Fold:
Amino acid sequence: MDWPFLLDVFHQLLSGLPLTLQLAALSLSVGFVLAVLVAAAVGSPFPPLRWVARAHVELFRGTPLLVQIFLIYYGLGQITPLRQSFLWPFLREPYWCAILALALNTSAYTAEIIRGAVQAVPAGEVEAARACGMSGFMLRRRIIWPIALRQGLPVYGSEAILMIKATSLASIITLTEVTGIAYKLISSTYRVLEIFVVTGAIYLTLTFLLSSALSLAERRLHAHHKPS
Amino acid sequence: MNLGIIELLGFGSQGWGGPLLKAAGVTLAAASCGFFLGSLLGICGASLKLARAGVLRTIGHFYTTVFRGVPEILVVYLFYFGGSVVLTNAMNSGGFPGFYSLPAFAIGVIAVGVVSGAYQTEAFRSAFLRLDRGQIEAGTACGMSKLLLLRRIIAPQTLRVALPALGNIWQSVLKETSLLSVIGLTELLRQAGTAAGSTRQPLLFYGAAAVMFLIIGRITGLILTRMENHLAKPWRR
Structure:
C-alpha cells in the first residue's frame, strides 16, 4: 500500500468536495421547490396545467440526465432571444447549466414522490379533520402535510442520495468537482484502483452521512409510535 | 447549412437518420447485454447475501454497498482505464509491447452490468424473502432435490415477484448507457453529439436523442408490463 500517494489523492479530491456539495444542495433545494409546483399542477383542476406538468415528469424521468445536461449546456445557446436576454450570463456558465439540469431532473422524480405521499394519506384522517371543521390551508398544514412527510421522507432520502451521485455528471461539462478531479488523476497516473477506492470512499461517506441524518429525522417524526 | 429539419433527420445523403437509428441499436444492444450480465451477477449476489456463511454474506453486502453508493460514471472509468492497464500489462509481460485497450462496447457492458447487478441483487433477494417458506417445505416433503426445487418452485415465483423491480432497473440501465458516450462508444448520445457538432444544431439532435430514449423506454416498458401480466396469470382470481 502506497499510503503517501493515497493521502495525496485524498487531499486533491477534497478540494472538489465543496463544489460537489454545492451542486447537490442547490439543485436539491431548487428541485424541491419546483417539485412542489409541479405536484400542485398535476393535481390542478385546470387541464392544460395538468398536461404540462405530466409532460414535464415524463420527459425528465424518461430521458438520461446526461442528455438533459447537454441539451441545456449546448442547446440553449442556439435560441437567439435567450442569448440576448439577461439570463445568458448565467446559462453560459457550466455551473448554472449543471444546477439547472440537476434541479429539473430531480423535480420530476420528487413531484412523483410528493404526489404518492399525499395520496397515501388515509382518507379517514382527512374526513375526520373535515368533520372537525378544518378545511383549506389548515387541513393541509395540520393533517395532510405532516402525514405525507412521514410517508415520503424515506423515498425522498433515496432520491437525495441518487442526486449526490448524479452531481458527478457535472464533470463532463468541465466542472472540477470530486469526480472531475478523480478523472484527471486517473488519466494522468493510470493508478486506477487506488484512485477509485479513495473517490468511492468519499461518495460512500457522503451517502452514509445523509442516510444517517434521514433515519434520525424519520425516528423523530415517528416518535409518537414508539412504546413509551 | 440551411437544410430543413426533415433533411437533417432524414435518411438522405445529408440526413443523420441512418446513423442515429444505428446508434439507437447500439444503445439497445449495450443495455440488453448489460442488463443480462447484471441479472447473472444479481442472482450470484442474492445467493451470497442469503448464504449461511458469514464471509459470503459480507462479500455480498460489500458488493451492493459499493456499487450502489458510487457514481456510475466512476465505475465506467474504473473498467475503462483499469481494463486497459490490466490488458497492457498482460500483453507486455507476454512479449507483446505496446498499449492495448478493450473495445468500448465490452467495457460498457461490464460497467453497466456490474452496477445493475448490485441493484438486481436487492430485487432478487427481497423477492426470495417474500416467498412462502411452506412451499419450500412442501417441495422438500414431496422429495424434490435442491435443483428441482429451485427450478419448479423458487425460480418461477421469485421472478414473478421481482419483475416490477427489474423493470425499473431496466429503465435506469437504458438511461445509464448514455454514460458510455464518454468512453467513445457510438451510442445514441455520442452520435447525436457528432451530428450536433457538424451541423451546429445541438438543440435538434440532442432533442432527437431524448425522444428516441423516450420511445425505447416506452416500448420496452410495455413489453415488460405484458410479461408481468403473463407471469401473474396463474395467481389471478
Notes: Residues 3-221 of chain A form a domain with the MetI-like fold fold (CATH 1.10.3720.10). Chain A has a mean pLDDT of 92. The radius of gyration of chain A is 21 Å.
